[in-house]
Structures are given as C-alpha cells and as structure tokens.
Amino acid sequence: MTHDPLKDVIAKVGGVSELAKHLRITSQAVSQWKKIPLNRLIEVERITGIDRTRLRPELAHLFRREESQP
Question: Which end of the chain is more exposed for a tag (fewer CB within 10 A), N or C?
C-alpha cells in the first residue's frame, strides 16, 4: 500500500468509476474525496479487502474489534 490509501482503493477496484459503481454513487462524488469518508469506510473495506485501520489509520482507535477481545 502506498502512503495514499484512497489511491490504493481506486487502483484495486479499477478506477474511480468502478468504485462509484460498487458504492452506488456518482464518480464525481468519489472524485471529490480527499480521504475515504467515515460513512463509507466499512463498505470500502468490504469491497477491497483492505482493513479499515489501513484505510484511515488516524481513526484506528475507533475500530476496536470484538474478535480482538478474549
């Protein structure tokens, strides 16, 4: 993964238009993103298989997963 997770996501799915299709939004909306919006993060993780903590590392503290608990 590069230093820009959004670029990685776009490359992985085959472009802005493809990501927009998966998310059922316009490619123009995706093109306006500087970062993956929080409200789209889980869906982008599901589509790409890239963990949300790698997509938005500054928010990793919000994503405590149940499976990490004993």
Answer: C
Q: Give the separation between CA 27 and CA 24, rounded to whole angstroms.
A: 9
CA angle 40, 65, 59 (to 5 degrees): 50
Residue with tokens 């820009």: 4
pLDDT, mean of each 10-residue run, the chain (70 residues): 87 97 98 96 96 93 65
Which phi and psi (to 5°) does residue 38 adopt? -55, -40
DSSP codes, 12-41 = HHTSHHHHHHHHTS-HHHHHT-SS--GGGH
Residues 6+ apart with CB under 8 A from 65: none
Q: What domains are defined for the chain?
A: 5-64 (1.10.260.40)
